[in-house]
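Forum: Protein Structure Q&A
Topic: Joint prediction for protein chains with partners

I've read a bunch of threads here and the consensus seems to be that you should model interacting components together rather than docking separate models afterwards. I'd like to see that in practice. Below is the full input, 926 residues plus whatever partners are listed. Could one of the regulars post the assembled result?
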Amino acid sequence: MIAVVQFGGSNCDRDAVRALSDLGFEAERVWHEDPLPEETTGIVLPGGFSYGDYLRGGAMAARSPIMKSVREAAAEGVPVLGVCNGAQIGCESGLTPGAFTTNASARFQCEHVYLRVENADTRWTAAYEEGEVIELPIAHGEGRFELDAERYEELEADDRILFRYCDEDGNVTDEANPNGSLGNVAGVLGDSESVAVLMPHPERASLPQLGNTDGRGVLAGFEG
Amino acid sequence: MTLSDADRDLVVAELGRDPTPAEEILFENLWSEHCAYRSSRPLLSAFDSEGDQVVIGPGDDAAVVALDDDTYITLGIESHNHPSYVDPYDGAATGVGGIVRDTLSMGAYPIALADCLYFGDFDREHSRYLLDGVVEGIADYGNAIGVPTVTGSTSFHENYEGNPLVNVACVGLLSADRLVTAEAQKAGNKLVLVGSSTGRDGLGGASFASEDLAEDAETEDRPAVQVGDPYTEKLLIECNEALIDEDLVESARDLGAAGLGGASSELVAKGGFGAEIDLEKVHQREPNMNAFEILLSESQERMCYEVTPENVERVQELAARFDLGSAVIGEVAEGNYVCTFDGEPVVDVPPEFLAEGAPMNDLDSVEPESAERDLPAFDLEDAFEAVVADPNTASKRWVYRQYDHEVGLRTARRPGDDAALLDVPEADTKLAFTGGADPNWTTAAPYDGARAVAFENATNLAAKGASPLATVDCLNGGNPEKPDVYGGFKGIVDGLADMCRALSVPVVGGNVSLYNDSVSGPIPPTPTLAMVGKADGSSPGLSLSGEGDLFLVGFPGGALGGSAVLEHAGGSDAFPALPEDADAATAVETIRTVAADESTVAVHDVSHGGLAVALAEMVTDEVGAEVSVADYVSLFEETPGRVVVETTDEAALRDLAGDVPVVELGATTDDATLSLAVDGDEVAYGAADIADLRDVLARELD
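Posted by a regular:
Agreed with the consensus. Here's the joint model:
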């Protein structure tokens, strides 16, 4: 059973359950004050505005008691996917390096972007080819990936960058970078390979009736 | 503003004594124009609100319409005009919050928002400041609560300079068994207030919304504007859902205009009851609040629930689970609406009299005159560029990019097309949603302009393959005590009513906002509609595919009155002649059939900016068009009820169109260029040039 953690202010929790169910997974929402169910085989930290993001995106949720259980589960190899605000929570709680800060535009941006698959040899990207270009929606005001130079080099050396923003043809350019992210980074692997965080929303590109299914491959990562 | 002498005399006669200070201020607010529709209600009987699909029509927090036997939607609209002038960010944000709570109180989960915004001339710094604040306020609130903003409109007109409009509509979804109304059910049931604590914010908001904006409103009236907290609203949405899941709510009303006094008195009056309320029980945010402050505070994110005594504990448990405050403030009772404070009764009035007793105004009206034709000599290049780059017709991407329009996993057609499409697997259908009005049309001709607004909204739905199901209106006008203003207002009410009836679209609810008047004069009469339809088949987008040829389907209006091109080129003309009722209905149904036909590969409604703008929007980086039209009126007339169709089968199109005129426009091309020929003049624009022209909002604002 995949647990979709619902913090106060989460707003993509229902969407994650629906998309995962459409892929045949058993998924349900777990309120952040309740314990993680014992049968948890995967965890989604969904998008939204946990605690209103009044302090800093994800900062409060990262200190919520359930995150201790999430970190423990991740350490045991339970797959954890953080999307959007969930990616911010992943960074804030130390599951992944880096931080997602205010967009270069200083505005909220909801639009579709192209992503180049940088490493197809992970559970989260195995459905794609390396270098493949996929289209996913973004919807965030704080999605600019930042990291110090030394650790960014390590991240690259360890092949932990999953996706970079690119143009339709796969060119990683400044024009194709929607938020000013370092190295056009849109998603990275966590300190454990079972953890991934990304700003774009794979669950919003999963249902055939909405016209785009490029995100199903990311969610399929829960299969293991 | 205080209670007028005439109203006060009525109150004294009814009560048999002078009202207490708390009663006086309660009557002042509940009998205000904003709450009691004193100047508009005599006109509103023009609307037809009946239909087999209508479950609950006007008069509750939101209307309820059936998609099928088991699945309902709610539909509501609200204005937040004066607050958005004084404090654009918070004024617009709380407008969103209010209409979402109207959705909750019917037992529904909010699934989509539409925002229709009207500002002064785009060239003015002040208009841009208001636009920026309003859009950011809507974005920050709507995005945080996870309700997608999927459609709407943004218009600019000099007469909104002193008084912008923010009209917000919300669609909710519920299964039939979850329906809750705002009608109290039983004496003895408890009244439970859930949500934010009550403070002194927004005091007297209803009466503030019922007078003209003063010159110093931006500084003087800030305390009458509420401040929103979307985080709490999101918790309230989840809590409301949990309360409905466990069937704990007998009736519900959100706290909006006139606060607790308004919500609780209307709730019990609607059920034919009174109430006993202890104002000190209300959970408060600041010390030493007096009775009328508690009663009239418009603190946001609060709901009033009627709950049976045995369910009170569970309701308060669930509120606590979602970190929300709650308080049992009293109960439904037989007899009067009674509020006590400090052990003393401070309000003791007949609830019906309070809720429904405001006398109606009988105001004079003057009908506007229509314009004569005096067309200028057009230069094709100047006219095309001016109209395509007009902020009214230009791309609104700068606005909707700031709104999360995809949260909820329902958005099947995104903003930027004629209508949004929302996937509703619960009823195995798609819901089409559109909204807007055109101030140039209703300035030129209030009655026909409003008919055109209704026709245009229905056409937007039909162009995406949907049959109109129901609509709500937000009627915005200036000071109704001015006969010409009231005449224009009467015109838009009758125009909307007549066209909606002709198209068999029930007007299931609405909102009236008058006194949108300032030192710069009255606003244009503005009949915003939010309309929904059901789309059971599929339909193409508006971008050209390059596989077919281009045709114009619909009845021409043959005139340029109220058009963007006359705004720029000068001159005057009558408003276009709209088809008779039966033809209008046939046009909408024909457009729907054509849009859903497999030979149609692109379809786009023709309206603001006319055919010129419609074609400019259809050209892509890969596919262009070569189009020839007879004259300038044909290129720029904005007559609604018409679409450009790219079809692979002309015969099939003509067959489907029947008696609705079909005019050949030209062919698609592979050069990504729009080539136009009009009466011997020719121009050509590449897709990139058109995109530049249409990008005026982003270019000027970022």
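DSSP finds 26 helices and 28 strands in chain B.
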